[in-house]
Amino acid sequence: MKKVASLVIAFVLLIGFFPNRSNAATSELKVHFINVGQGDSILIQSPDGKNMLIDGGPKSAGKYVVEFLKDKKIKKLDYVVATNNQEDHIGGLVDVLKAFTVSTFIESGYTDNSKVYADLNSIVKEKKIKVSVPKELDKLPFDSNMIIRVLHVNQNASNGADASIVLKLTYNKVSFLLMSDANIAIEDQIRSKYDVAATVLKNGQHGSNASSSAAFISNVKPQAAILSYDKKDPPHAAVEARLKNVGAKTYKTADHCNITVTTDGVKHSISSSCGKTADKPATAKQTTKPTSKVRSKPKQNGNLSSGTYVIPGAPTSFKNCTELRKYYPHGVKSSHPAYASKHDRDKDGWACEK
Description:
Layout lengths: L1 H15 L12 E5 L8 E4 L5 E4 L7 H10 L4 E7 L4 H4 L2 H7 L1 E7 L7 H12 L3 E3 L14 E6 L13 E6 L2 E5 L5 H10 L6 E3 L11 H7 L3 E4 L9 H9 L3 E4 H4 L2 E5 L4 E5 L48 H7 L4 E2 L16 E2 L3
Parallel strand pairs: 3-4, 4-5, 5-6, 9-10, 10-11, 11-12
Antiparallel strand pairs: 1-2, 1-13, 2-3, 7-8, 8-9, 13-14, 15-16
Helix pairs in contact: 2-4, 4-5
């Protein structure tokens, strides 16, 4: 009997070394959809503290993306992913690669003769950043708590958009499908081979009707859909109708600015930094507080609290400070295009600070 008891105890202790994966999600995953105007930029902050930036928006958004990353206290990027070579995806990465230490740069492998692509590759070589070209179904070794799988990439495509890297992130029961510039033909290929069901869908081609087919959205069945675009080039009405038909709540960078999805792997919440109140997904807990904390007097430290950053697509004229703070919760400096002397009551060169 003593021998049997000893074996049982040993077995119980052994089981303790192998955690139950279904309950392993104890920390938060944050996925930020950065407002870069007509373009894509996504920051992933993993449960174990790693950082991945997927695309950097157009060149005009580069400094803003850098400031956003610094505001999140990021000093190093474990991965930077250029899903395709279009300027609205990689233009801003030039400033990012200059400003941060980057461990691995992932690209589609499709090459072209554009200046922005040449500039990006020049920085990668200069800083001796490791380059990786993934294959379909590759798993990116980012965080052991989650799975990031490549569902599409084609370095032999006829154009940069069709070479797009499509990624699916899975953290326990919550998943993200990031479509880059994949069109309907690519959507059909992916859904015919893989499970595309996802909690959050980042629609392809900024909501263009050349992507997000009814069949595809029906397969994904997202609870939330992210549309990243500039107000001058809004998403197609048919795309929004298809999302509504499957019960998805739509979030738009042109309206909500920066959009953050926070999840523990079971529940998720979605918050926005400005504009309209973010809608609540069917099974998600909602928070609508700005992503940046308000301070009594912002420090001029070069990040989002500096009062000089410009949100792409944001108005430059506001009726009052209440409206301005929806976009700039810390107020703005006199050098900012949204600054107006009527909002600077103490005449200190800072309008609408709290």
